[in-house]
Amino acid sequence: MTVSRALSNHPNVQKETRESVLKHARDMGYVKSAAAMAMRGDGTQIVGLLLPNIVNEFYARFANAMALACDQNAFQLIIHLTNDDKAVEELALDRLREVQAQAVVMVPSPGQSHVEPAHFDAMRVVQLIRQRTMTKDADAVLVDDGPALENAVRHLAKQGHSQIAYIGADAELSSGRSRLAAFEKGLEQVGLTKIPDLIRTGKPSFEMGRDQARDIIQNSPATALVCGGFEISNGALNAYMGSDQARSDQLAFVGYGDPSHYVWINGGISTVQIPVDALAQQAVDLIALKGADHPAQVFSFKAELIIRGTATG
Amino acid sequence: MTVSRALSNHPNVQKETRESVLKHARDMGYVKSAAAMAMRGDGTQIVGLLLPNIVNEFYARFANAMALACDQNAFQLIIHLTNDDKAVEELALDRLREVQAQAVVMVPSPGQSHVEPAHFDAMRVVQLIRQRTMTKDADAVLVDDGPALENAVRHLAKQGHSQIAYIGADAELSSGRSRLAAFEKGLEQVGLTKIPDLIRTGKPSFEMGRDQARDIIQNSPATALVCGGFEISNGALNAYMGSDQARSDQLAFVGYGDPSHYVWINGGISTVQIPVDALAQQAVDLIALKGADHPAQVFSFKAELIIRGTATG
DNA sequence: GTGAAAGCGCTAACAG
DNA sequence: CTGTTAGCGCTTTCAC
Question: Given an 8 Å threshold on Cβ–Cβ distance, is A33 in contact with B88?
Fold first, then answer.
């Protein structure tokens, strides 16, 4: 009827009629049914965000920036936590498909995608931080942290360290591979030999970082430790701060990601800083760009090494 | 047709037919349209969460717990950030109504609700931390922090402090009123007189906390500072850590909320610890309890004073 | 055991 | 300028 046109801003409706309709609608608190619109095929305003968790400050800041941007663009942001679990991730994607989400921004969980079926559908996909090859064309917003990690090793070597340990993700993740490669490249650049026992890789998590760091601190001759992952860094820091004061004072520490409190801890935690706001902005730009076709672009943002107290000589 | 019954687990369908249907559905990655279900009146699986922000570790942990619980209960969690702005909040609520969210968990923004219209509708409402009187029956999950705050004052007095400052939310918030009252009650209990210049209230935010703390540190004779809010605490801590080392060493500090890193900063930040996981669990229980009627219950969880380095004599 | 009809809220495409 | 028809995907009736 006419009210539909009035509410949809169609031209063919009397000025007074429209205003009357709009007023009444406002008075009775009417809102259009998103379900009906979706069913007609008008699409939804829903965007999904899949993260391992949301307590890690990096992810929290990313989610915060995205939520803000989504509110501005009249999107609804649905968040699912995957805990880096493939099965949970697939479930979340299916649920997003149920509500016909326009797009998903996701941190792909480790493990090769076993030829994912129709888990994506019409959703635009933006991969964050990590990149997985997938059947579906997907944009990617990545971090170029190689130079910063090499730089960390060079810096530590210059401080006289020759026993530099590394904790990072294993080769299942593209980011795990590339960070480890950067670390090793750094060693090579300064002429240090790779010590297998000081290189720990695995499924990245707070617990993994904490346990590996604890072991390194207690049982290895390492004099410096470099982290290659957000949760790993926090876990390792937990072990570092909890360890015997004298022992940790002898260990140089370089974290990954830059939670706001790192600057206040232990004279300042040195770290690889990731430009989280730029990443979030790029991700939102990609999903706001509801352009029809998908050129599947890849963006990369440079990380920076920040030297503070824990890595000065 | 028959496939509908098969997919909906109705009894009236041949075993082999059902299995065939299910198999094909899985193969082609079929998922039910949430839009169609919603339109029929079956309700949605959507739950809204309205928070001021999500970088503050308290809110992040709350959101994390809720997101996890929602995934388990097959809910979809839509997050909107209000930045404590009333207008933004109302907009977010309307958007949640559009998608027929089952429930909203919200931290009400400051300011009396100007007889909110139909902003709620059929959504179950759970107020978090703060409570606002509203036309709609709403559950509330609150923090009983009075005893902990009184305790903080008593502890500081016992350490010899007589010039104790307080930064908190103003009277627009029930929580602001009650925390201030608890602080003053604490003063009274130890026989200290209230010093108006050392009591700062206003719209709670990181900036507000930082600026007030900076002013107190630089221009007041206070020897101790108690915070009455999450962002205020982080802002004040920022000023505290950034201030002249000598000056801040002379100032005892009691924060609010217990971000994981407080324990590592400056010998340990004393603080009022809120049981965030219990709060989140209660909120989820309330929304999972899709029981028809609304008894509008109020829950209260006890906060605890944690004394660390910054409040020891 | 299976099929046909109807309706949830909305709007594009046609009448009038 | 305004009204009617039809159909988006799904599940209840109610026949068969």
Answer: no
CB contact under 8 A, B36 and A33: no
Per DSSP bridges, beta strands A304-306 and A270-273 are antiparallel
Q: How far is the CA of B14 from the C1' of C3 (A)?
A: 15
DSSP result, A258-296: --TTGGGBTT--EEEE--HHHHHHHHHHHHH---SS---
Instruction: Give the nearest chain A residue to B75 (CA atoms).
Output: A95
DSSP string over A73-136: TT-EEEEEE-TT-HHHHHHHHHHHHHTT-SEEEE-PPSS------SSSTT-EEEEEES----SS
pLDDT digits (tens, 9 = 90+) for B42-94: 999 999 999 999 999 999 999 999 999 999 999 999 999 999 999 999 999 99
The 10s digit of each residue's pLDDT in A70-119 is 999 999 999 999 999 999 999 999 999 999 999 999 999 988 777 677 88
Residue B174: both structure tokens together: 């029930």
Q: How far is the CA of A125 from the C1' of C14 (A)?
A: 39
Whether the CB-CB separation of B310 and B269 falls below 8 Å is answered with yes
Q: Calculate the alpha carbon distances from B194 to B67, B158, B163, B180, B199 in Å.
A: 43, 17, 9, 11, 8
Q: Which residues of B touch A118 (CB under 8 A)?
A: 28-29
- Characterize the bridge pairing of strands B304-306 and B270-273: antiparallel
pTM of structure:
0.95
Query: CB of A259 within 8 A of CB of B264?
Result: no
Distances (CA, A) of A152 to A15, A142, A200, A242, A262: 67, 20, 17, 23, 16
Three-state SS at B109: coil
